[in-house]
Amino acid sequence: MAKLEAVEYKSFEAIKQTDDLGNEFWYARDLQKVLNYAKWENFSKVVDKAMLACKNSGVDIEMPKTAEKQVVDYKLTRYACYLTNNALRIAEN
Domain boundaries in the chain? Predict the structure, then answer.
């Protein structure tokens, strides 16, 4: 079993945010950097695939967009990050 102290896990946990209710979330643009994706235009397609996978799995989660200064971003749950990472790995193969 892989240690939870792996560099990738530490990077992932380092970008974690918490809302006023204590719910964890990650901004997609932060996750993009951790996953070494250079362009948002390409990474947003991976996030879209993750949203579709989530919908197809029967899990109803909200992935709100945030818009500050006309910059689109998403607040992702831990599960949404997992699906995004899976979509990224599938896209690479």
Answer: 7-92
